[in-house]
Write a structure and sequence with these properties.
Number of strands of chain A: 14
Order of helices and strands of chain A: EHEEHEEEEHEHEEHEHEHEHHEH
CATH superfamily of the largest domain in chain A: Aldolase class I
Oligomer: homotetramer
CATH architecture of the largest domain in chain A: Alpha-Beta Barrel
CATH class of the largest domain in chain A: Alpha Beta
Shape of chain A: elongated
Radius of gyration of chain A: 23 Å
Strand content of chain A: 15-25%
Largest interface: A-B, 49 and 49 residues
Strand order of the largest sheet of chain A: 7-8-9-10-11-12-13-14
Amino acid sequence: MIVVLKHGVTPDKKKQLISWLQNLGLRIHVSDGEFQTVLGLVGDTSSVDMDLVESLEIVDSVKRVTEPFKFCNRKFHPEDLVVEAGGVKIGGGNFAMIAGPCSVESEEQIVAVARAVKASGADLLRGGAFKPRTSPYDFAGLGAPGLELLKIARAETGLPFVTELMNIMDLDLFADVDVIQVGARNMQNYDLLRELGHVDKPILLKRGLANTLKELLMSAEYIMASGNERVMLCERGIRTFDDYTRNTLDLAAVPMLQELSHLPILVDPSHATGIARLVPSMALAATAAGADGLMIEVHNDPIHAMCDGAQSLRPDEYDALARKVRDIRELMI
Amino acid sequence: MIVVLKHGVTPDKKKQLISWLQNLGLRIHVSDGEFQTVLGLVGDTSSVDMDLVESLEIVDSVKRVTEPFKFCNRKFHPEDLVVEAGGVKIGGGNFAMIAGPCSVESEEQIVAVARAVKASGADLLRGGAFKPRTSPYDFAGLGAPGLELLKIARAETGLPFVTELMNIMDLDLFADVDVIQVGARNMQNYDLLRELGHVDKPILLKRGLANTLKELLMSAEYIMASGNERVMLCERGIRTFDDYTRNTLDLAAVPMLQELSHLPILVDPSHATGIARLVPSMALAATAAGADGLMIEVHNDPIHAMCDGAQSLRPDEYDALARKVRDIRELMI
Amino acid sequence: MIVVLKHGVTPDKKKQLISWLQNLGLRIHVSDGEFQTVLGLVGDTSSVDMDLVESLEIVDSVKRVTEPFKFCNRKFHPEDLVVEAGGVKIGGGNFAMIAGPCSVESEEQIVAVARAVKASGADLLRGGAFKPRTSPYDFAGLGAPGLELLKIARAETGLPFVTELMNIMDLDLFADVDVIQVGARNMQNYDLLRELGHVDKPILLKRGLANTLKELLMSAEYIMASGNERVMLCERGIRTFDDYTRNTLDLAAVPMLQELSHLPILVDPSHATGIARLVPSMALAATAAGADGLMIEVHNDPIHAMCDGAQSLRPDEYDALARKVRDIRELMI
Amino acid sequence: MIVVLKHGVTPDKKKQLISWLQNLGLRIHVSDGEFQTVLGLVGDTSSVDMDLVESLEIVDSVKRVTEPFKFCNRKFHPEDLVVEAGGVKIGGGNFAMIAGPCSVESEEQIVAVARAVKASGADLLRGGAFKPRTSPYDFAGLGAPGLELLKIARAETGLPFVTELMNIMDLDLFADVDVIQVGARNMQNYDLLRELGHVDKPILLKRGLANTLKELLMSAEYIMASGNERVMLCERGIRTFDDYTRNTLDLAAVPMLQELSHLPILVDPSHATGIARLVPSMALAATAAGADGLMIEVHNDPIHAMCDGAQSLRPDEYDALARKVRDIRELMI
């Protein structure tokens, strides 16, 4: 950590600050410049409150020179993490296609969609049993019975599945789930994250609507520091001011996160755009950007979907897209 | 709800859509214009998925003409809601000053701060026992013992207190708390909101970092629709691109929310700016904007605060500010 | 245009509004619903101030059902526009690679870069002679002599070139330029846009940092309504809150703009990210998203570039990228 | 400027960078820490391209420790700047009320509004003759004749006036204007700013829709560095994601800018909200936040205003507001 002092600080005040920092167990390198003095703090600075130091009258600015995340930091884990889920490998060159409906609605629906996406080469099935909805009056998912239907679809097709957990108290119900998803709205639900650190399952962590990449990594760090290192990240669009699309897909997050972290990075073009006819081009773009996988909403009857039908592809549209994704992947090897 | 059809839709397609909408139990008023046809949907449109209808090939756009919130809608509750918490009234002309440290750190600290803010006329004490922190390595609050210290401070000063709940499983611990706070990061933790709908206590609901006013109201609606109508809203800054301040305080939210809803609206200038020296001017501005109360961080020793010291006022600074707030309030009656 | 009246409006007030609107030369279709009345305005509504009508006491909301842009609207021009610039075609399936340095610095530099990108298959050269810089103390370009150097590079390589115009008063100097660029900061410099409507040259219009797609199209409309229909759009990143990248590249803008407009859409991954090592993945992603061309910064000596060296590729890096772009393009035909 | 090197940089690479920086005329203080080396650059670093240095393979991060603005920096000008315009003082404790219509429409209109706001104690008149409009089809102002009408209103009332300049080529027409306004969309029209540096008149510079405070100050610096130090800043709302209000008024910008700069800071609550009924509370809030003045749209007949009628107060509403503003100002002295 580096602390830049203001111009004209008295030696007394400087000495006082240095000794306060030394009391925190740090060693201080002083570099007196013509216009300012710079303190270099050496040691474990994780206990130093940057904002507080920055607010001191004699301090101009403070800068952390090491990232505050360790478990998910590529510096300490140069090799790509390969996550295994229900026999499927994701990351480290293993590209995963995750497809399925927004919500599980019935056995007929989820089995039909699972069969269709399996036939188109999907690696995992997605489907929500517990759905976060902005309005208390909207369909919130089938709940526990929805999880059972996902297991039936898995049995029928062999596809492992990903599904969202919203409430720590439901954790027991998720014992036989392949991958647990943490939704965008819960990205900073820290109690939930900590609890998932004790689970022996891969976690798919979605970026919040207005969260920075550093915050996403810090949330991954919560899970990993609690014991579970099988974390995958997912970019699903951030909120900006334009109103033609639901969110703004931030594809530069893919190479940037791959540089900062060794965790796999997936992209969800369905939630990012909210418009089915934009999904294929964004899915191809994400593939070309180097994503480790895609998560795409597919529904056998979007017009009657109980949730997010507007952003769901039909199985034939998904099939055509999956072929193109494979073509681009082949160019990238 | 209004559905605008695209120019040149065939009568067949139009008929098909109308009968599909009628099957949802709606009556449809058709208005054929020169350039487009407009359908007016009459009846309970809460089950209609706007995005889906908008995605249909023949539809140009869809517009909801009634707000999706009811319990917190001023249209149905023209009178200001007055919330009572530990004998203190908030809203409907009752202005509340809530002050205290970010975190409860020790009996000595919380009692000292409580006495100081009480002497300066504060109505409620604030203090966190469970703290959401971006990093898993930061101080996360004292937990349950922190709640006990808040009760001691209450006993010493008579000030009711507000404190944040992060985890549904901790609800029992909050039985003797005066006001339960839902933090910005949990604004859309719907399971938590629903659970708080069954609690017989006032809830202080903070706006999320990138949430719209409508989303804030929908979250209030979650609590109220589950049975608890004692909800207060709190503006605490939204995330924008500037980096001089931590967040951007959106004060127009105050009169806008007061127009849309009858719930009291508080403002937290401490989290909104993250900088203690900006807190007084933003507190005065919020008062002049017509807020129903303020929530301000005060610490007896900011330099050694375990959390957010940079945005905390010292007791003497708070005292000076409280006087000015009262002066402005007097002008507003 | 549709005007939704509030619930409970008196017949008198309704009649008054209708007659006011009729005086503007409009025909009004009235649709009385159970909960609200909807007025459909037929005729030329371009003179109606939506915000004003929306502010009337009896009005709930107003919605325009036709886009306010005509010249750049695909509805009226279903065929892709193909722009020809110095013998090169852009749009309608013609993919253009534009490459070159941020700033023209010397004859040696611009000719060397032009030769290198030509050898790698570039279609046009880019290079700034007049540079918008945030600070008045930064290098602002060579000015008029820079334009002469671009002409020398064109003579040496046969590459037509694109360069930015910042000031209407410089227009005469641009007589022999192939494509005039309007930079992001001038996207809403309406006097400049209007003037470019009288020029017989293609215009490359960059999206502003915080502008919506509709605003971008309205700015194109300014140029086209003044007489020059050879306009190309360019997405170059918008401003959000993350600080790892300079801007956030909004690739969904590509298919969305192609749906709304027939104008070619280019993507500039260099300014969008500000980081050379992210440029290749974003260039490939933009290609896969269906862009009509790319605009990429290339410098023969980035370390000594006078401007934006951090986001410039070296010629060998550009060459490797151009090959991959071609591979992806081949998949897309 | 501080350059932090990555962990494990070889002595050779380090030496090479240091000598490159020394060649730029800088002295380098090297501080070798346990985990990283920090270089302190002493001398004139204004020629150093931060982004470029940051992009070097061996560099972790770069930080400027002195602000890049000088003329508008309070560090070098501790006293508040008092700007005099047509006999009215603004700044340094002199609070200015600027009021008038969005657009000048007729002699009758501008004289009537000028008289009304003068009677309510306004210090300056505002009114647009050249209007930036998003659509080329909207009313763009009366142009030069509008300026003549403003002079008539000034002659009738004695109020000096502020009006917007959009085009350098119109500068001659502005010879007898009291204050020249640079609108939000032209905040980074650098040629315009430079030209205004040669003008002997106060300039009112509005913050752009998505510009940081630093960028606003750099734009002021452009004018001041060219010779005209009579610059006033104006906060008028920034663009965020909420759609209930037109923009988000950033009132913390007021005390923050006053800390960074000695220039007067005005607030325009009319453009910030776009809704007349929110203007009074935001005007009072801005006053309580310590602004040096307000700029408010007033129209004698908002319903028939040719521009922005929705955000204009009627004269009687303005009069009531002006009284309350004065009450709050009295508290602040």
